[in-house]
């Protein structure tokens, strides 16, 4: 029996490694978003600083480990085998849940997940104990630490509102003082602002370090606690003087220093506050196993775990090993960057591509709060005018290197989050660092006017999606852990290892899904304009590049969709759908980036911008028509409708052959610099349209003779229509490209050609 439990403890530690990986991937947003979003340093420099913070912070976690051992339930009233079941249910649930959020790039709270998982699993086992033989007469209140659980949950929820308001107020007054052209004010006020911010961060580090660190003696911790105000006062003066000297001597941007120091502090906080979420449960399981195996008088289902209710210092080796795993994950996890990008996109200053669509609730909120702007009517005109000037952004320049938000906002995000998390840690409350950092960032972005009329509904929809995900986290964490605990209790080791296999399968599938999402996103980002100035010749080059790329992918898609439709090969159709979806997204991004492209055109190239816009419009139309050849075919086969008749397949095959030859001829003409569309291409286009017309007539005859059904006709007519659109839009695309070349070469474009 001891061997089985040893194996389960080993499984707990393996799950801890997995949990560290998925946990860091999600929580990295907490300390990376401000530095990356403001481009405070190179990406590598930011990562090095964050890594050092993680390694140091890992040693500060010991005092928080009691949350996993006795924060949610009373371990002294549970037997050893019940404790192991609870911990296994918690860890497997946590790995699955966090990996799911990482896959979709959504930040969530590892603290909320671990709290509700512990609660769900403990409630399940408690119900079994109370409703079973129950010789000791336990009630639910004897088993569940309901007061502590309620305090944790209420503290986490309250932090959401407090963090948002704190970020909004701090950013509003910070911007009033410094304005968007803040660099001029740094000479006089930068050192004071920096001193205040770094002092808050210093307080944060001291509180984290003094509370339960495995490397700080009790005497040192007591001294820090007793002299906190003196230390902070000295820190403020010292940092203000140091920063002023650094600015005057080296001309280093003070806010850059603040952001990097804050990044280090928050990374340290993450490792200190959230490490309990990843290894607290396995370490508690390890302690339970050591305690049970040290005695020989009681079986696993007879030994009460009173030892877990006492204080314990976590061995530094485990902390440093966990810190090392977290640091390695930070560098290599692509999912960590996905989650970070979500928060940065919601807080960015510029208007452009938005990840989230508007929702009914976000539109309602925007309409409801739009009237709040009328409050300015009760403010004196002079004050209103002054504040408007302080928030003026017209002097700012926008180029390829412009950060998502400036260093002033990044510094507010960091020091406000530091203050709030420090206070919560001092109160021994496992605050959600994700909730705090996210809501501070959202509050500061609102105060900065980043949620304007062009973006408000999308940003609010995104914030609501993230917050909704937090409640989903709590519900799913409780439900899954509850169900798994029941399964493990009644299913034994078979149920445990079956769920481990399911978890491995889910992670494998989400990895493949994330890879597809990253490919789509990569295609979209690749098309973002990076040049500060774009010339007419560059537009022609881009037009030709995009045109050839699209024609090649359309040819591939035509072959795959018809082969898959004829053979009822769902996998091939799915591949065609997913592959062309990337092309479709790329053309969509090109069109959305038109404003940025035009902004970067030099004056002599403005005329060509009009024709380039027509090229992009037709690129989108061609991609749209191709996509609507694949999508209905995939849906038709997925729904197991009747396949095409032999005659229909032959007709579509002939159309595809003609279109493919047309596309190949067009590609050759473009590469060789010949005029497009040539007379030969125009004749081929007209011939294809005649063939499509004939196929329509044939389908009418088939309907009359009753050889095809409704679904078949809907699909076939749709494919014919999109084939016609494809050939017409391709001809328009070729003509748009020709007009662009002509205008750049100084040739006259006839009115009828426009």
Structural features, described:
- With 754 residues, this protein is an all-alpha fold.
- It has 2 domains: 2-368 and 404-521, no CATH class; 532-753, Up-down Bundle (Methane Monooxygenase Hydroxylase, Chain G, domain 1), CATH 1.20.58.220.
- The protein has 25 helices and no strands.
- The protein has helices spanning 2-38, 43-58, 66-71, 80-103, 110-131, 140-143, 146-178, 183-210, 218-226, 228-250, 254-293, 316-332, 334-347, 360-369, 381-390, 407-426, 433-447, 456-526, 536-567, 570-592, 594-599, 606-638, 646-671, 679-705, 710-744.
- It starts with a helix and ends in a 10-residue tail after the last helix.
Key attributes of the depicted protein:
2 domains; 25 helices; 77% helix; 754 residues; mainly alpha; single chain; Methane Monooxygenase Hydroxylase, Chain G, domain 1
How far apart, in Å, are the first and last alpha carbons?
83 Å
Percent helix, as a range, is over 70%
Mean pLDDT value: 81
Beta-strand percentage? under 5%
Radius of gyration: 31 Å
Shape: flat
Low-confidence stretches: none
String of helices and strands: HHHHHHHHHHHHHHHHHHHHHHHHH
The count of β-strands is 0
Number of helices: 25
Count of all domains: 2
Report the sheet with the most strands, covering strand number, pairing sense and barrel closure.
none
| SS class | mainly alpha
């Amino acid at each position: 029996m001891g061997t089985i439990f040893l194996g389960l403890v080993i499984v707990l530690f393996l799950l801890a490694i997995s949990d560290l990986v998925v946990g860091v991937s999600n929580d990295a947003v907490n300390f990376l978003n401000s530095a990356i979003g403001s481009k405070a340093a190179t990406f590598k420099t930011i990562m090095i600083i964050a890594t050092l913070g993680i390694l140091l912070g890992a040693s500060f976690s010991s005092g928080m480990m009691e949350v996993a051992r006795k924060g949610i339930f009373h371990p002294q009233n549970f037997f050893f085998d019940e404790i192991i079941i609870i911990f296994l249910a918690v860890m497997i649930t946590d790995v699955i849940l966090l990996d799911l959020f990482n896959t979709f790039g959504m930040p969530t709270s590892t603290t909320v997940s671990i709290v509700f998982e512990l609660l769900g699993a403990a409630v399940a086992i408690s119900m079994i104990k109370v409703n079973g033989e129950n010789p000791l007469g336990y009630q639910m209140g004897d088993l569940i630490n309901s007061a502590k659980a309620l305090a944790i949950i209420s503290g986490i929820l309250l932090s959401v509102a407090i963090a948002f308001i704190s970020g909004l107020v701090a950013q509003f007054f910070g911007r009033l003082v410094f304005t968007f052209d803040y660099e001029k004010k740094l000479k006089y006020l930068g050192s004071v602002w920096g001193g205040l911010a770094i002092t808050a961060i210093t307080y944060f580090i001291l509180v984290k370090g003094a509370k339960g660190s495995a490397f700080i003696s009790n005497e040192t911790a007591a001294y820090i606690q007793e002299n906190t105000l003196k230390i902070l006062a000295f820190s403020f003066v010292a940092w203000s003087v140091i920063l002023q000297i650094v600015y005057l001597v080296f001309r280093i941007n003070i806010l850059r220093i603040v952001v990097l120091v804050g990044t280090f502090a928050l990374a340290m906080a993450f490792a200190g506050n959230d490490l309990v979420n990843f290894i607290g449960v396995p370490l508690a399981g390890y302690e339970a196993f050591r305690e049970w195996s040290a005695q020989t008088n009681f079986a696993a289902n007879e030994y009460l775990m009173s030892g877990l209710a006492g204080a314990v210092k976590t061995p530094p080796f485990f902390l440093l090993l966990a810190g090392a795993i977290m640091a390695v994950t930070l560098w290599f996890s692509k999912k960590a960057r996905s989650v970070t990008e979500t928060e940065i996109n919601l807080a960015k200053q510029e208007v452009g591509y938005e990840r989230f669509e508007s929702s009914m609730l976000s539109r309602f909120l925007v309409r409801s709060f739009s009237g709040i702007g009328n409050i300015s009517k009760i403010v004196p005109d002079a004050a209103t005018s002054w504040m408007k000037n302080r928030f003026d952004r017209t002097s700012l320049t926008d180029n390829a290197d412009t950060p998502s938000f400036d260093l002033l906002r990044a510094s507010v995000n960091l020091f406000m989050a530091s203050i709030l998390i420090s206070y919560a840690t001092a109160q021994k409350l496992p605050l959600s660092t994700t909730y705090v950092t996210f809501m501070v960032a959202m509050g500061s972005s609102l105060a900065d006017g980043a949620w304007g009329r062009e973006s408000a509904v999308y940003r609010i929809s995104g914030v609501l999606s993230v917050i909704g995900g937090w409640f989903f986290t709590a519900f799913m964490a409780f439900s899954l852990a509850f169900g798994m605990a029941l399964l493990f209790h009644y299913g034994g080791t078979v149920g445990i290892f079956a769920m481990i296999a399911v978890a491995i399968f889910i992670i494998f599938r989400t990895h493949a899904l994330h890879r597809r999402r990253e490919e789509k996103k990569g295609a979209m980002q690749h098309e973002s304009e990076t040049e500060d100035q774009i010339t007419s010749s560059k537009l022609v080059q881009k037009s030709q590049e995009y045109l050839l790329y699209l024609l090649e992918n359309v040819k591939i898609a035509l072959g795959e969709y018809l082969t898959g439709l004829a053979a009822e090969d769902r996998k091939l159709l799915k591949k065609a759908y997913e592959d062309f979806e990337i092309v479709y997204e790329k053309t969509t991004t090109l069109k959305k980036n038109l404003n940025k492209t035009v902004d970067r055109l030099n004056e002599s190239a403005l005329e060509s911008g009009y024709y380039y816009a027509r090229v992009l419009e037709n690129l989108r139309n061609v991609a749209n028509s191709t996509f609507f050849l694949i999508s209905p075919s995939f849906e038709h086969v997925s729904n197991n409708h009747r396949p095409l008749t032999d005659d229909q397949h032959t007709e579509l095959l002939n159309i595809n052959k003609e279109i493919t030859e047309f596309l190949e001829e067009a590609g050759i003409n473009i590469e060789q610099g010949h005029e497009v569309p040539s007379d030969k291409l125009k004749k081929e286009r007209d011939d294809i349209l005649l063939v499509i017309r004939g196929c329509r007539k044939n389908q009418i005859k088939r309907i009359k003779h009753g050889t095809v059904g409704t679904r078949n006709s809907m699909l076939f007519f749709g494919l014919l229509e999109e084939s016609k659109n494809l050939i017409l839009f391709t001809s328009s695309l070729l003509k748009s490209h020709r007009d662009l070349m002509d205008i750049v070469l100084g040739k006259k474009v006839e009115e009828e050609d426009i």
